[in-house]
Amino acid sequence: MSKTESYLDESSLQSWLLTTDHKRIGLLYLFTILVFFFIAAVAALLMRLNLLSPHGWIVNADTYNKLFTLHGVLMVWFFLIPSIPAVLGNFVLPLMLGARDVAFPRLNLMSWYIFISGGLLALWALIHGGVDTGWTFYTPYSSTYSNTHVITMAMGVFIAGFSSIITGLNFIVTIHKLRAPGLTWTRLPLFVWSMYATSLILVLATPVLAITLGLISLERFWGVGVFDPRLGGDPVLFQHLFWFYSHPAVYIMILPGMGVISELIPCFSRKQIFGYKWVAASSLAIAILGFVVWGHHMFVASQSVYAGIVFSFLSFLVSVPSGIKVFNWTATLRKGSITFETPMLYALGFIGLFTVGGLTGLFLAALAADVHLTDTYFVIAHFHYIMVGGMVMGFMGGLHYWWPKISGRMYPEFAGKMAAIITYVGFNLAFFPQFILGFMGMPRRYHDYPPEFQWLNVLSTAGVSILGVGYLLPLLYFLWSTKWGERASANPWRATGLEWQAASPPPKHNFPVVPRVTKPPYTYQAEQDQFTPQSELAHV
Amino acid sequence: MSRSPLVAEQFEELEQQHLADQFGMWIFLATEVMFFGGLFTCYTVYRFLSPEVFAHASHHLGLVLGGINTGVLLCSSLTMALALRSIQLGRRGATIWLLLATCIFGIAFLGIKGYEYHEKYVEHLIPGSRFHYDGPSPNRAQMFFWLYFAMTGLHGLHVLIGVCVLSTVAILVARRRIRQENYMAVEVAGLYWHFVDIVWVFLYPLLYLAGARG
Amino acid sequence: MDWLFAGLILIALFFLVVVFVPLIYFSIKYRKGSRADRSNPSAGSDLLETGWTAFPTLVGIGIFGWGAIIYFHQQNPPADAMQIQVVGKQWMWKFQHAEGAREINELHIPTGRPVVLTMTSQDVIHDVFVPAFRVKQDVLPGKYTTEWFCPTKPGIYPLFCAEYCGTLHARMGGRVVVMEPAEYERWLSSGPPRLSLAAAGERVYRELGCSGCHDQQGTVRAPPLTNLFGRTVALQSGEVVVANEQYLRDSILLPGTQIVAGYENLMPSFQGRISEEEIMEIIAYVKSLSERKSP
Question: Could you tell me the residue range of the domain that residue C282 belongs to?
């Protein structure tokens, strides 16, 4: 194997901290979000250990409340939202488009620094005693009553939001303007479609979060504000503004994962994706419909009955495009030639867990059922099925899939499979009991609870411990692989995307010559065991 | 094909880069619309709930100064548009003067705004413990003034940022880093400036003209 | 309502089967090296897509309708429901019966009669959640929200606060004690003698000086309160509103925002001079001056 220049060659600190290379920026993000994931995971572990007993025995009420706030804030804004877009999107998107970088590389680097600044503020708030408002910051508790560092935490998230906006803006312009010749919109890989839809939400929804957090910070600082009942203010207005962003935000969190699955299923079943146009369109439909369902978080918040009816109806509609994806992925398997490497295990796991999570969303969309289930552990189970069972599995699948491209090494396959299975088992044990707990009436954000809920809590904690092992293993073997992993060829998975036409790892500017695209994606033939890449390009 | 040194690595040609820059700024402006939109939503909700209170409170805002400020910003948009035309025609000197004129208009806007804020301070109309309002529903009126300061404050911050950006652009034009060939930087800065102007065009009637004045 | 849950579970199981069975079947049948027929693979079928788009949409609309109908019924308390006033604060509940009985964190009610809770918060947003009754409703500062149920079986049912409200959110619980009607009457009359809510309200009405303007022979011209509750009121702004609990509360705390047509803006605000309980007592008094019990 001839030695080629790789984007990883230069190793000075300066070359990393001042890089404008999208591949390095993707890795900078990877390192950063793992730090936040770890802190948030420790918070979750402490909470679940505390919940082993009906009477909190590890931490007191205040600490518990700060732990769930920290867990939510870090997981949502400092792990999930950047995860696939800022790590895999940054790394893979230009390669998939046949481009040398994103449209605005310096803005890209700036977005990472902005992200770090926001994160540092959040950590500052943590070190100085934490925040106890919940990641949802409901007023008037957050604006008037809480005695914690709300402004600092809110400003940390506010700043990190700008990093999201810049990433989304960069991706939209890149997808529009930097596609390789011949790469028409209908030849785009589905990962690109989902990143496009995600970016639309990133740029349009995040600013609303920013102004909302700004408003509560101002209200705390100034002593008066728009959510203050004494001025005739309405605390529920906060909820409208908050959820107007936060509901689309959950689609920011899941669409990229869906995009990864759309890459993995065709590759590992050696088959053209079933219903390409429908899958692409469904990403856009989710993005658009996702903006008009926010009120389903507020069915018992004193919203009018008529508003509730409209939001419930639209929420059922938004579930349909997700269903379309699941059906299409499943249909893709038919007449394929399927292998079960680690990325495929994660993809299949995603489909299973996301389907459960999505179906339980229907329970919550149904008005009368939601009255009973909202603010209970049912909701917690629902969103963890989608975020952890869905998105994190999608992230892991994508990370394993593109690891050879990123690092030039293969991860150890047996360990990979083991970790995937352990994760799947641990996850279900951790979160399925929570559906039952919620139906039985255990509210969320409770540091202690009536004794009849204990056995289900114990099961859940046991599951979380297993899940932790499932996450620790990849951390260890990915690191191991950078030194001792088998060296990877340019296209170890025999996949059709343009990214596989570049070397593993790619040189700094990806493609010495801009590729010409002549084929749609996923031109796999299972029967003949052949595949046609999107462009034929000689690589070194 | 030789690449112009003005073209960044990731682009094939200057035109592509220009279109990307322009598109990027339009997307950024869309995010700004959503950002201000949150505040406009709050204003709309509370005005709908207490229209008479807002109308009455609005009378405390000076129409004359507000009107002058509107004129100032509109003039600044004119000089900005002329600056863009100048650089597209290769007239470096005129471009710099027009950009500076735009900045001066911006600073004048901020000055007048600052004076208005000072007036409100003297009249005890700044929300908080020292707020004092002679009129119906002082609490709801305080909401009006809170929104007034928040909205014009956020807008003023954007004007300030715009002045900084435009003066930087003027310096780069003076140093010939921005020229006729890569005029796009001026267009992109101009788009931002026009947006800031349009926000004011909405703010003025909403805040100053909320109550009909006979 | 649990029929709805059962229906949802069945539909969820149906779709789970529809997804899992083919997923597993195809994974096994078409695993690499198996001797399945892989000729003429399909890349799509608009017919199939339309089908599996239309069918879930219809199912979704069906469940939506079912849930909406129950919800509508849930949100509209019957006119003759027994009224309980509720004030929530960090971290306890105060329940007030119309006859005057007051309870903390516990609510005694009889079987067979609908009960409507009219609730407000003294500080942050709380929520009254009684899982056994399948009801939940946020309790807000500055506003009244209602929740109703009709218990059928005597027993003790847990009540939880279900909107995070600070340190002791998890301890802000209580019990709903449902008794047979006869037992309930005994319980009601066993407590210390108390003024009914309306009588207490009349006392506040006089003590705070409301009678000075609002009584017939008041010195200042103010809108009369007899036969007011439940009626529509024309405001100076041209709007027409219903005189419900929220209207009365706003009139007491933010009088200048809803001036009645034909009257001047003279009423002072009682913000800071009157407690949530006293407001509820006055409202009960004003209700007693009208035949209508609900708007």
Answer: 197-291
* Rounded mean pLDDT, A23-44: 97
A491 CB within 8 Å of a chain C CB: no
Q: pLDDT tens across A354-409, in order?
A: 999 999 999 999 999 999 999 999 999 999 999 999 999 999 999 999 999 999 99
How many separate domains does chain C show? 2
Kindly state whether residues C203 and C171 are assigned to the same domain.
Answer: no
Q: Do B35 and A218 touch (CB under 8 A)?
A: no
Structural domain contains residue C19: no
Closest CA–CA distance from residue C189 to any residue of chain B (Å): 44
State the Cα–Cα distance between residues A328 and A277, nearest whole angstrom: 11
Residues of C in contact with B133 (CB under 8 A): none
**What does the alpha-carbon distance between residue A213 and residue A326 come to, in Å, rounded to a whole number?**
35
Tell whether A316 is within 8 A of chain C (Cβ). Answer: yes
Render A112-132 in DSSP notation, one character per residue: HHHHHHHHHHHHHHHHTT---
In a domain, C20, yes or no: no
Q: What is the count of residue pairs from A and C with beta carbons less than 8 Å apart?
A: 260
- Report, in this order, helix, strand and coil percent for chain B, each rounded to 5: 75, 0, 25
CATH number for position C222 = 1.10.760.10
Are C175 and C217 found together in one domain?
no
Whether C208 and C286 map to the same domain: the answer is yes
Give the SS3 label for residue A445: coil
Give yes or no for B49 touching C (CB within 8 A): yes
Whether the CB-CB separation of A427 and A463 falls below 8 Å is answered with: yes
Same structural domain, C217 and C179: no
Contact C256 B49 (CB under 8 A): no
Is C271 within a domain?
yes
Q: Are A23 and A7 in contact (CB under 8 A)?
A: yes
How many Cβ contacts (< 8 angstroms) between chains A and B? 107
Q: Looking at the partner chain, which of B49, B51, B136 has a beta carbon nearest the beta carbon of C256?
A: B136
Domain finish residue from C189, C216, C250: C189
Q: Parse chain A into domains and list their residue ranges.
A: 18-493
Q: What is the pLDDT of residue C218?
A: 66
CB contact under 8 A, B16 and A206: no
B77/C contact by beta carbon, under 8 A: no
Q: Rg for chain B (alpha carbons), in Å?
A: 21
Contact C31 A338 (CB under 8 A): yes
**Cβ–Cβ pairs < 8 A, chains B and C:** 21
Using the Cβ of A313 and the Cβ atoms of chain C, whether some distance falls under 8 Å is answered with yes
Helix (H, G, I), strand (E, B) or coil at A534: coil
What does the mean pLDDT of chain B come to? 93
- The DSSP bridge pattern shows strands A530-532 and C115-121 to be unpaired
Choosing from C157, C189, C221, the residue where a domain stops is: C189
Residue A225, chain B, CB below 8 Å: the answer is yes
Domains of chain B: residue spans and CATH: 14-208 (1.20.120.80)
| One domain for residues C169 and C99 | yes
Task: Give the predicted TM-score (pTM) of the model.
Answer: 0.94
* Contact (Cβ atoms closer than 8 angstroms) between residue A186 and residue A117: no
Query: What is residue B9's predicted lDDT score, i.e. its pLDDT?
Result: 85
Q: Which CATH superfamily is domain A18-493 in?
A: Cytochrome c oxidase-like, subunit I domain (1.20.210.10)
**pLDDT (tens digit, 9 = 90+) per residue, C244-263?**
999 999 899 888 778 888 88
Say if C45 falls within a structural domain. no
Cβ-defined contact of B23 to A173 (cutoff 8 Å): yes
Per CB-CB distance under 8 Å, the chain B contacts of C255 are 137
User: In chain C, what residues touch A312 (CB-CB under 8 Å)?
Assistant: 64, 67-68, 71
Q: Does one domain contain both C205 and C146?
A: no
C173 and C118 in a single domain? The answer is yes
A341 touches chain B (CB under 8 A): no
Whether residues C93 and C183 share a domain: the answer is yes
Digit-coded pLDDT (tens) for B163-206: 999 999 999 999 999 999 889 999 999 999 999 999 999 999 99
Chain B interface test: which of A106, A226, A230, A303 (most B C-beta within 10 Å): A226
* CB C231 within 8 Å of CB C291: no
Do A363 and A369 touch, CB atoms closer than 8 A?
yes
Cis peptide before A140, with omega less than 30 degrees from 0?
yes
How confident is the model over A285-344, as pLDDT tens digits?
A: 999 999 999 999 999 999 999 999 999 999 999 999 999 999 999 999 999 999 999 999
